[in-house]
Design a protein that fits this description.
mainly alpha; Cytochrome Bc1 Complex, Chain D, domain 2; two-stranded antiparallel ribbon; 55% helix; binds heme C
């Protein structure tokens, strides 16, 4: 059982993408390790976690039934049934886990993971009362021995508690790191001054300080409650004041009492504090050892139309858009190598300006059918709408990107004048110079400026 749990732990701790330098990644052939990468994904993690739960439950059953001889007639059959249940559940969990590699994530999350958890819960809910009934009237064959546990084993429990708190903090960090500056992706942008993710070292330091604070509070609560139960007069009603009052009241009594000679104070508290601080320091150190990078919100440069004088300027800005705000390079390559999506090599020669525009703004315009299916299936476009959030390019920015795509082997037909024309606010909203700016006028003007930018 220990081997099973340790093996499962190993899978659970295997990272999906390794933090690697460029050279390391190249030597490995990608950011995922060819063999270990298989264990890094969610399907493997959920499987091993479910097996860990089942194995821990099994060890609990063994402990529960230890030194008891089952006397009920159906005991043997019930035990065989329990073995059968466990085997089916473990096999089912593993098979669902393996199947999870071959289906879309949404199916795995909605169906397979739920099935795995339900199988485990079913075993727990069925076997617990069954064992209880089975042990009714059982003959005790020996005595349970309690309390023989080496004091040092308590450190494992303390570290366990610390790890749980640290893991929770890390999950928060993972969420923050992957939300890419959106509260709701593509809908509600995070524009606050704090819309950045600190590097891992800083985060690890903050987690450690928070963890230490949290456990100091827990320790304080234990201290308060253990102090106040010594005297009947004080109850936990005056929670935080009580120990000090008690200390004051007992002061004369203690002062008059002879000093105890040679009575060693329990050294455990200090040792535990030492271990905890050491563990957290090691954690912080490890946090600083991995490459540090700050997740800053994307810079929002305003397109300065006045600076554009030639089609060359247009393609240069378009290129920056392509690799920056437009995020095109996340999917497209410009060379011969195949990326996730069509390479845009020579796209300017292949595609008309109208087609490029339509691809960027209405990716669904051409209905793509998958003819490998017997019934032609309609495919949703994978190309995002470029002028809607989250990418949300303005009309002018869109034109620069089109210019850049055209420049890839073709002739750029976008004119700087077109961008300048877009910059002019609609004449209706333009207030006359002499007119005093009425408040509602200002409002509408701001709106126009906003739309135009
Ligand atoms: C999420 C990935 C993704 C991003 C980001 C993306 N595209 Fe695409 N793009 C695609 C896919 C996939 C296609 C193929 C058509 C389809 O499936 O919708 C495509 C098709 C195209 C085509 C047509 C190619 C052809 O040969 O017919 C052009 C041009 C294009 N994208 C330009 C861009 C530009 C410019 C940007 C950035 C502003 C961009 N794309 C951002 C995924 C993406």
């Amino acid at each position: 059982m220990l081997v099973t749990i340790l093996a499962c732990m190993g899978v659970w701790m295997t990272p999906h993408s390794l933090v690697a330098s460029m050279e390391e990644a190249r030597a490995m052939g990608g950011t995922h390790h060819p063999i270990l990468g298989v264990f890094g994904v969610m399907s493997a993690k959920l499987t091993v976690v479910n097996i860990i739960i089942l194995t821990s439950f099994m060890s609990f059953l063994l402990y529960w039934r230890a030194n008891q001889q089952i006397t009920v007639k159906w005991g043997k059959a019930a035990r065989a049934f329990e073995v059968f249940l466990f085997s089916v559940a473990i096999l089912g969990v593993i098979l669902a886990g393996i199947y999870g590699y071959f289906v879309p994530a949404i199916y795995r999350v909605n169906v397979l993971s739920v099935a795995q958890v339900l199988a485990v819960l079913f075993v727990l809910a069925l076997v617990t009362p069954m064992t209880g009934m089975m042990l009714r009237g059982a003959k005790m064959t020996g005595k349970m021995t309690w309390g023989i546990m080496r004091p040092s084993s308590q450190y494992a429990l303390v570290i366990n508690a610390i790890t749980v708190v640290l893991t929770m903090s890390l999950m928060g960090y993972a969420r923050s790191a992957s939300r890419v500056h959106w509260h709701v992706y593509g809908v509600l942008e995070d524009t606050s001054a704090y819309a950045y993710t600190p590097p891992l070292g800083t985060a690890a330091f903050l987690f450690s300080v928070n963890t230490l604070l949290f456990f100091s509070l827990v320790a304080a609560i234990f201290w308060v409650t253990t102090r106040t139960i010594r005297y009947d007069g004080f109850c936990t009603q005056y929670f935080f004041v009580a120990p000090f009052v008690e200390w004051l009241v007992s002061l004369p009594e203690r002062l008059s009492a002879p000093k105890p000679v040679g009575e060693a104070r329990s050294p455990y508290f200090r040792k535990v504090v030492g271990v905890v601080v050491g563990f957290l320091a090691a954690f912080t150190w490890a946090g600083f050892m991995v490459p540090q990078s700050v997740g800053l919100p994307p810079t929002k440069e305003k397109l300065d139309v006045a600076k554009i004088s030639s089609p060359k300027d247009l393609t240069r800005i378009g290129q920056n858009m392509f690799f920056g705000k437009g995020q095109c390079a996340l999917c497209h390559t410009l060379g011969a190598e195949a990326g996730r999506c069509p390479s845009l090599q020579n796209a300017g020669a292949r595609l008309t300006r109208e087609f490029i525009f339509e691809t960027l703004t209405k990716p669904d315009a051409y209905v793509k059918l998958d003819f490998e299916q017997v019934e032609p299936k309609k495919f949703p476009a994978q190309m995002p709408v470029i002028n809607k959030p989250p990418i949300d390019l303005t009309d002018q920015e869109l034109l620069t990107v089109i210019a850049f795509v055209q420049s890839l082997g073709g002739k750029v037909t976008v004119e700087p004048a077109e961008l300048i024309a877009l910059d002019q606010p609609a004449p209706v909203a333009e207030p006359a110079e002499a007119e005093p700016p009425a408040p509602e006028r200002l409002e509408s003007r701001r709106e126009v400026e906003h739309k135009g930018s």
